[in-house]
Design a protein that fits this description.
conserved putative lor/sdh protein from methanococcus maripaludis s2 fold; Helix Hairpins; four-stranded antiparallel beta sheet; alpha+beta; six-stranded antiparallel beta barrel; single chain
Amino acid sequence: MSMRMADTDRSMQRLLALLAGSLLLAACDKPSAPVQAEPQLVAVSEVRRGSLQRQIEISGISRAQQRALLAFQSSGILQQRLVRLGDRVEAGQLLAVLRNPELEPALQAAAASIARLEAERVQAQRNLRRLQDLFRDGAIGEQQLEEQQTRLTTLEDQLREANANLSSSRERADDAALRADFAGTVVSVLREPGEFVQAGASVLEIAGDGLLEVELQVPHAVWQLLQPGAEVPLSVQDLYANDSLPLTASVRDLGAQADARSGLYPLVLEYDPAQASDAQSPTRWSPGQRVSAVFELIGSDQLLVDLNAIVDPTGGAARVYRLDGVRDRASAGLATVTAVPVQVLGLAEGQVAVSAALQAGELVVAAGNLSMVDGQQVRVQAALAGMTGSGSVSPP
């Protein structure tokens, strides 16, 4: 009897162990409940309206305002060049001489023709006076007198034409001597003695003293603010002193149309180096220096956001993330963001002028927005509501 009861107890123990194992396996196979992700912690900034003031600096190379490319008006061999690169020249100074084999013979022929015609005219005048005496005495008829007068008139016309030819030959001979029109410096030598020079081909370039100028290419935003005579701050980079020398330039020429390829407008600024205290130093003030002009751009009544609020500003999909239904930073907590495309109009001191479907007073994410997606839920703490900065924000 006792043996049967012992077997029954062992059977019950095995059954209980199997049931416990089954329950444990069932519990392990049951799927666990999903864990909810914490909303991303972000900082926000406020959209506002205001004026964006910024500076644009555009550089160029200075040049002399008075400059000239000198050329002969006739062709020939460059016989002599009397100046070198960098030489100082005075107005009227002889710079180069051209040899043209046709010039001297033309001068001699014109002078000989004048001498011959002058002698013939003198003889014709004498003949006319003698015939006039004979006509008064009745020894000749009126026709002979008129023929002599006609011959004298023809000779005088031929003499005037010969004088004109001589003047033209002299001008061509004078052109064979290249002279400086103004005082300055030789900045370029384009032909050497012995070379054949075509008429009109540049031989030398000289730059005058006095005013300097710089030609710049400016965008439409700058161009529309300028007019001839307007003053523009200018700085000249001094490589020797490793600093910039401030000057004031004025607008001399302003292009009416932009370049078709670049979209930029030509602008010429002129300035007087004598306005600086060390203007007497020729090595410090000369053409060929790099100068920079500073233009002030002020936009009125623009939509402004913090720079850090803009995601992908240069990648073609610039956008901000707006907090929907939240307009008070102090009470901002959980919120949903909406991606709003923006067009960047300008940047100054961390503020960006944009064109977008935004309103002043709305809040946009200014930190923690790099990996954000449209419709994402975020959490804004009051302590972080005024912070700016891109990237993720760690909880305190």
